């Protein structure tokens, strides 16, 4: 049976269980089991390649002990073991090393939703059909895992953790990270930017084992919510990271702004911070008074500017509201343009993040160290063959090929204005009150006519309607008198 069919079978079994309610719970349930299976397969490989290696999971709770045997325990015994022994033990696992910290972090707020021990055994047996030490199988499953993450878009609010892979790929390619550089995603979700960055570096710059080690050592990430954190850590394991302890289960914004020091600064930030939401009470007090707000995207932008090293570069997804908003938003944009070279804004249509969000978004690219002189804009449009992006026809990487061709390489030289591209000077933006919501000047708006002429026509039409109404009244009155 193919791996895709294995995953489909697992999903079908879960739908029979009364405890699994909806896509988000199904994915969460699948994730903790996959995580333990992947950890166990990695442990076996480490035991073979590193004599003396001991798994941080006690033997009784290792996957191979209680789950690997297809004829193993089932029913009530299995359910009681998972709920009353396995989960409590892993939640309290001593943090004796980085790998142990990761395992405990995954289970701290995870739950077993399944209520049937018999169905749970069936799911476990299906998972056992996948050998994560088989490179070909692991790579194939990695592709399927991407689809599992994509399914989050239809799982209610869980969709906020997923950024379309076309965007993560495009942004990472423009930023061009290299092994040895530090790369941070302060709101990493399921790890899409991290996996894209690793794939980009592996394809272009990783030639010897030391390159891979420097690539992994340079990664940094934070995620505050349990489900995406678990999904992200599992994603890292699937991509060959043995100790994904660089993914921290924390709220980046909870640490005081001033506490982020020189040692915390990074070369690269690529992220899609949550937008449209509000942070919990008190979080804004971690920031200087002129940046205080409960709008999450604004707080992240302030922090991103601080966390970049001089010469550091960033690619950030922000909503339209961040471009035209006033007050704190204006002060943030002024700060951004003074501290960084905001060289490019890619404007996206409303449908890119459907169904989770239906608002206009933008990709902001900037480098810290020199003030902005001019901003280039590129307007991305939905292909002519469709009206909008949706679940069945999402944005694809090749939809952005025209922008990539226009980009002009890492030095961005040779750019030219055209139907999709235009530039605005920093002075013009300052004169606009730092309003970055600048429409494409090459778009020809529909000419509706001279306003005064239209008003006269409307008044004439109203007069004609009144005349006809009076005439109708007169005709009806004569008819009634006969």
What does this structure look like?
By secondary structure, this protein is α/β, with parallel strands linked by helices. It has 2 domains: about 5-135, Ferritin; about 150-430, Vaccinia Virus protein VP39 (Rossmann fold). Helices cover about 45% and strands about 10% of the residues. The protein has 17 helices and 9 strands. The chain has helices spanning about 5-15, 25-50, 65, 75-90, 100-105, 115-125, 135-150, 165-175, 190-205, 210-215, 225-240, 295-305, 320-325, 330-340, 400-405, 425-430, 450-480; strands at about 185, 220, 245-250, 265-270, 310-320, 340-350, 360-370, 375-380, 420-425. The chain has a 9-stranded mixed beta sheet with strand order 3-2-1-4-5-7-6-8-9. Helix 2 (about 25-50) packs parallel to helix 11, helix 5 (about 100-105) packs across helix 11 and helix 8 (about 165-175) crosses helix 9 (about 190-205). The longest helix has about 30 residues, at about 450-480. It is globular. The protein starts with a helix and ends with a helix. The mean pLDDT is about 90.
Helix proportion range: 40-55%
What is the number of strand segments? Answer: 9
Biggest sheet architecture: 9 strands, mixed
Q: Strands across the major sheet, in which order?
A: 3-2-1-4-5-7-6-8-9
CATH superfamily of the largest domain: Vaccinia Virus protein VP39
Overall geometric form: globular
Name of the CATH class of the largest domain: Alpha Beta
Please state roughly what percent of the residues sit in beta strands, choosing from under 5%, 5-15%, 15-25%, 25-35%, 35-45% or over 45%: 5-15%
Helix-and-strand structural type: alpha/beta
